[in-house]
Write a structure and sequence with these properties.
This protein has one domain: LigB-like (Protocatechuate 4,5-dioxygenase, Chain B, 3-Layer(aba) Sandwich). It is built from nine helices and twelve strands. The strands form two sheets. Strands 2, 3, 4, 7, 8, 9, 10, 11 and 12 form a nine-stranded mixed sheet that branches. A three-stranded mixed sheet has the order 1-5-6. The longest helix has 17 residues. Belongs to the MEMO1 family.
Length: 297
Amino acid sequence: MSNRAVSREASHAGSWYTASGSQLNTQLEGWLSQAQSTVSPARAIIAPHAGYSYCGACAAHAYKQIDPSVTRRVFILGPSHHVPLSRCALSSAEVYKTPLYDLRIDQKVYADLWKTGMFERMSLQTDEDEHSIEMHLPYTAKAMESHKDELSIVPVLVGALSESKEQDYGKLLSRYLADPSNLFIISSDFCHWGQRFRYTYYDEAQGEIHRSIEHLDKMGMGIIETLDPMSFTNYLKKYHNTICGRHPIGVLLNAVSELRKSGTEMNFSFLNYAQSSQCRNWQDSSVSYAAGALVVH
């Protein structure tokens, strides 16, 4: 029997971001140096998961709010893009590789989550095909490098959850969110607009298409800032905005709701918004990105 830990390869390195550790380090440092630390220390962040050439600069605004001196464990909740999943799934790996350094999964927390009976196990293949968690690993490694020896991660693949399941997972994870040594990363891009995404909502009153998209996204972002899960659900039902991390966001909002019942004061603010391109006609397409942070008072 081999004692080697089961590792998830950095399968999107070399395509979605550079596989060179030194280049990656320089890139991340550059983007982080452009962002302000305004709401640190964050207890949770929402950040995008596209290729770094599209969203690396935007994501930095969320990562800049992390305080590595208080953070010991990072939960990463990403949506499932490739496999149908009606619950949440845990990784089969023990270590996640990045071009910077390897991140180890917190086996104790995994064992506790597993005991609840609420989780499935994703295969290593599913794990390596998925980019929604991986795109946060280099940024996590960079943000936490001064305390990397004390760091563990808890990757969770989030399926297409019903409202009641979002509440159940929110309730379960709220006790982890209550702990200042835990940080939650919610992986989500915002509006995917264009015929290739089968979504072409357009409010002419806003002017050009890209302005309509921005207005739609910012309406949703404003609702997320109120931290009310029901309002976010209603917004999605009304506009069907193609926010791919809507279920991870829903889980976070429900976890916050649970903590607020016991009087915990929190607020969420978005710090940056960007689009992959500015749509002006029906042939165009774009994906939107937003970065924000949750602070506990």
